[in-house]
Specification:
By secondary structure, this protein is of the alpha+beta class. The chain has a six-stranded antiparallel sheet with strand order 1-2-4-5-6-3, covered by helices on one side. α1 packs antiparallel against α3. The protein starts with a helix and ends with a strand.
C-alpha cells in the first residue's frame, strides 16, 4: 500500500476541499493534477479567485504528488512554500493545478506546481506558480 492509498479519501473528504469543489484528476508517479471552480468560497468579494485558496490548492496538489511516491508508513508535512500569483482568474472559470516532485530524499521532498485558469472554451492560461518543500516523516 502506498501513502496515497492511505490518505486519498481523507484528503478528498476534508471539509475545506469539499466546500471548494476539489476534484482529483490524477495522482501517480510523482505528479498530481486537481481541479476546482472559481465560485463560492474560492472567490473573493470582487468575484476573483481568492489568493489564499490558490496557496491551499498548490499545497494539496504537491501533497498528492509526493504521496504517490511514498510508502504507506510515511507522511509528508509542509515546511516551506512559495506561491506567486501572476494574474487573476474570474468567477465561472475552472482552475487546474499540476504538481510534480523534483526531488525526493530521505527527509525532504522538493516540488513545483502551476495553476491554470480554464475558460468556457477550454483555453488555459497560467495564473500562478509555486515551489514547495515537505518534510518526510513516519506516519
Amino acid at each position: 500500500m502506498s501513502m496515497l492509498e492511505r490518505v486519498l479519501e481523507p484528503v478528498l473528504q476534508t471539509p475545506l476541499h469539499i466546500a471548494a469543489g476539489l476534484q482529483l484528476v490524477r495522482a501517480a508517479d510523482g505528479m498530481a493534477e486537481i481541479r476546482y471552480p472559481v465560485d463560492g468560497i474560492c472567490s473573493n468579494m470582487h468575484g476573483m479567485l481568492h489568493g489564499g485558496i490558490t496557496c491551499v490548492m498548490h499545497d494539496v496538489a504537491c501533497f498528492l504528488a509526493v504521496a504517490s511516491l511514498l510508502p504507506a508508513e510515511n507522511h509528508a508535512v509542509t515546511c516551506d512554500t512559495q506561491v506567486s500569483i501572476l494574474r487573476p482568474a474570474s468567477r465561472g472559470e475552472t482552475i487546474t493545478v499540476r504538481a510534480k516532485v523534483d526531488r525526493l530524499g530521505r527527509s525532504l521532498a522538493f516540488m513545483r506546481s502551476e495553476s491554470y485558469a480554464v475558460d468556457a472554451e477550454g483555453r488555459e492560461r497560467l495564473i500562478a506558480t509555486g515551489t514547495l518543500t515537505k518534510a518526510v516523516t513516519r506516519a
